[in-house]
Amino acid sequence: MKRIVSLLFVVMLFTGVSSQIRGNQITVTVTPDHKDWNYRVGEKCKFVVNVLKSGTLLDNVEVDYEAGPEMYPDVKKKGEVLKNGTMTWSGTMKNPGFYRLKVTAHVDGREYSGSCTAAFSPEMLKPTTVNPQDFDAFWQKTLEEARWTSLQPTRELLPERSTEEVNVYQVSFQNIRWGSRTYGILCVPTKPGKYPALLRVPGAGIRPYEGDKWTAAKGCITLEIGIHGIPVTMTQDYYDKLMQGALNCYWQFNINDRDNNYYKRVFVGAIRAIDYIATLPEWNGEKLGVTGSSQGGMLSLVCAALDKRVTCYGAVHAAMCDHTASLQHVACGWPHYFYGKQHVDQKEIEASRYYDGVNFARRITCPGWFSFGYNDDVVPPTTAYATYNTVTAPKELHVYQQTAHFWFQEQWDEWCAWLYKELGIEN
Asked: With contact defined as beta carbons under 8 Å apart, do 56 and 137 qualify?
């Protein structure tokens, strides 16, 4: 018994200690001399770099750094020693864009990095992608053909996830052809009535989904969908095997073929999710929002552009925008199809235009909420800002400069508050 008690004590102690691991003793800060990180073309940005240990400057620290337009640094230095743990750097740009300084410190065999990305006249950024003349005809025909197949929805109550306020279901409905289904988690308030609806579209990857019952509890139908045509209630191990197997790098499937691109089915599935919401007797038929981040940000643009039932959308660091920018030595959006390639297939370039967020952004007419970070190297702010600039409909921009491809809590809260306001539900 004593041995068992001792073992339990050790397990509890280890669990308690490990759960409190947070941050690093060594930090690298890179800050600009403008508080908003914004400059005009031709201005100089002065960066200050500090390598800190326990909040104080670390003497004689070795650093590597690179500087220049994001994704295309033109200065690279290795093995510089900062005697007093600090340095300054100046950078500028002759054209609108983003200039990034990234510093990596080497301390006791470990690496610690910090970045700062300054904007130069970002409101003047323009995308590079071409708008195909038959873009509208292509997507109109695609959706018409998909709708020849009836939804034939399924709906399974998940009692273990449901609450007194919200019923939670796994649902599915047919997508682009017979037998091709989209799966998702539907949350419906239990109180009888008519409600607004919110479609949540996913970031890249393969995973299970829990559903948004928190928003549903406020008086809103929510539908969170997957994109791969498989149930969304399996264990993570199931999805990991698919990610490493049959669906590995799915975003590259048939990128040279407009008609068989993997995302054709994905985009159609998002619109058919709206078709499904429209069949729900609980929907009020008036307010319908779409939101997501990264790949989900792109899908939000797609839905807002292709379906006029969408009344608002929130696009956070939207991926898949301005694919061809890298052909002009400018930062491009994830998945960076043409970045670093020596030879590019012209068919891939032409096909990419039908799956470029910029060309969907051109067609949006409802209000939108945009947010992204200047330090993002997955969805570079060059593409995010150029896409935002393309939208002519009512829009709001909420920049969180220091973020990379992640959220701050304040950013999340602001995003939710805007959506709730647009949908007419209480925050």
From this structure: no
